[in-house]
């Protein structure tokens, strides 16, 4: 028996994953009562009903766009080409991940379920966002701790955790959370691996993630990313960075099974050792 | 997963429809008459707002998307519209929902080439003039390369007009071109002003089509022509199925990949299905007071040009 997940009031409807058509039907009749009189939500309800009418599926979570298998295939191909053509289209990389992750995401979710910390993450569904992080406290932590290094990474590379795209094309709302978690943990990967956000750093992190998660998007990114690098960088990549990334990826336990929000005070070195990431070259 | 839901789908849609009607009637008291936004039911005010947002978000990629969705064929459709119009120099055109200027630029090109031919003919007749007289005639003709023709591009959306103006600058169109922010349902122009009124791929986004048609009638001069280029209904069953498949499966994907906006293009294909078919629209045009209303199907009805005259 699956325990009931804690409802996240701010994030939208209670995530009772409907596993049967009857379950979905109940969700439909419950909605109008739950949504009361707010016009914005009524529109969302209408969009959901409209989406239902078109595709025969529900909108399973806010932002969900139900898609047919043909549409997913076209999206996967189109987003792959567009991401190669214009590497700044991060949304295309995200879409590629969602449309091709149908095998890797369930296996990641199962890895999380069978691990105590991962299981807790699936239950509590923490989100890494500027609104949930206490930046002042993290900056105040001593150097070398995860929190301090993470904030330093965000500042040095001028990135923010809020730029991660919410999932749209994943047809299971728990898997949607898994991929969302993977995206939000990506910056922490940069911190743990000590890699910057330039093309070279991103490729190295992709290799690590490809070994860790098996997501086709990571594999493709790892394989095709280097296409845009100079010869010198390619050499460094091939001789030092990639072998290290692969070794670490193989050795490390699942990175999604770490409750990072509860480990801001832990030193990066100790966390690396605990997970099994070798020190960066 | 979708296949598994099929038996339940019919049941759910019926129930969903009843619930929606209930919610709709409750809300109707508050916010005005009901209309459609794609396949959704919304109030008129909501529809106008949503459509404004759709075009605000797609404005920059509008032309790229048109080319990819129609594989460039939309250019041919617009060319056919302007050829059908056959404007002579001195024509005053109002292009409503003309946003990025496609019809306006084609109009200018057409009038320019007609004008050039006129000038060439004049020159051939005046080959016995002295060189002084010929150079003088160049001076006066240069200032009238369009022959007093003018086009006013009117659009309700600021972003679309912005893109249009930038395009005009980039392509070198300046003479005889004006850009006006206005609503097709309530045009900011006086009665009996224009020779031709065009609306290309715009009228299906208007919330009250009847008002737009009435406004079109009002601002046209007697003898003026109404021309509407719009997606319409395909009667051929095989083509219709292929067209539906392409519209619903491919176009939103193109929207996501090229413009990063699935929902706007989902709205687009739904709004095409919601627009009245050729005969019904012809009746609406006649209701506004136009005479000799006719339509021409392009590509078996994927697109139709409706034409009418104010007498």
TrEMBL record, chain A:
It comes from the Eukaryota. Keywords: Lyase, Membrane, Mitochondrion, Mitochondrion inner membrane, Ubiquinone biosynthesis. InterPro entries: Coq4, Coq4_euk. GO terms for cellular component: mitochondrial inner membrane. The keyword Membrane applies. One of its GO terms (biological process) is ubiquinone biosynthetic process. Residues 41-52 have a biased composition (Acidic residues). GO terms for molecular function: lyase activity. The keyword Membrane applies. Residues 1-54 are annotated as: Disordered. Pfam families: Coq4 (PF05019). This is 4-hydroxy-3-methoxy-5-polyprenylbenzoate decarboxylase. The gene is Coq4.
Automatic annotation (TrEMBL), chain B:
GO terms for molecular function: 2-methoxy-6-polyprenyl-1,4-benzoquinol methyltransferase activity. InterPro entries: SAM-dependent_MTases_sf (IPR029063), UbiE/COQ5_MeTrFase (IPR004033), UbiE/COQ5_MeTrFase_CS (IPR023576). One of its GO terms (biological process) is methylation. The keyword Signal does not apply. The keyword Methyltransferase applies. SUPFAM superfamilies: S-adenosyl-L-methionine-dependent methyltransferases (SSF53335). Keywords: Methyltransferase, S-adenosyl-L-methionine, Transferase, Ubiquinone biosynthesis. PROSITE patterns: SAM_MT_UBIE (PS51608), UBIE_2 (PS01184). Component of a multi-subunit COQ enzyme complex, composed of at least COQ3, COQ4, COQ5, COQ6, COQ7 and COQ9. Interacts with PYURF; the interaction is direct, stabilizes COQ5 protein and associates PYURF with COQ enzyme complex. Methyltransferase required for the conversion of 2-decaprenyl-6-methoxy-1,4-benzoquinol (DDMQH2) to 2-decaprenyl-3-methyl-6-methoxy-1,4-benzoquinol (DMQH2). This is COQ5 protein.
